[in-house]
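Repro:
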Amino acid sequence: MNSVQVLEVYYDRIYIKGREYAETILESLYNSQIIILHEISRDMIQEAGRFKTSYSMSLGDTFAAATARKFTAVLVTGDKEMKAPEEAGEFSVLWLK
């Protein structure tokens, strides 16, 4: 997970349940075993750019996709934007309902 993704989770939670809830989620992320990349490398920017131009994805989702691909990780999401790259074999997805 990178800083852009953390930001997306945070502001999305503010919209859904408010700032207090978002703070709880943010705290949980930072206290979990999830690795948060604070500096985004050039290769990650290039990979995110490739996802952005190859698939119809939001900017934050491009970094999630690039991160999953780089680390050969399973992306856990319910976001339908990830369907096309998953079907193209870019990375695996564990779908949330």
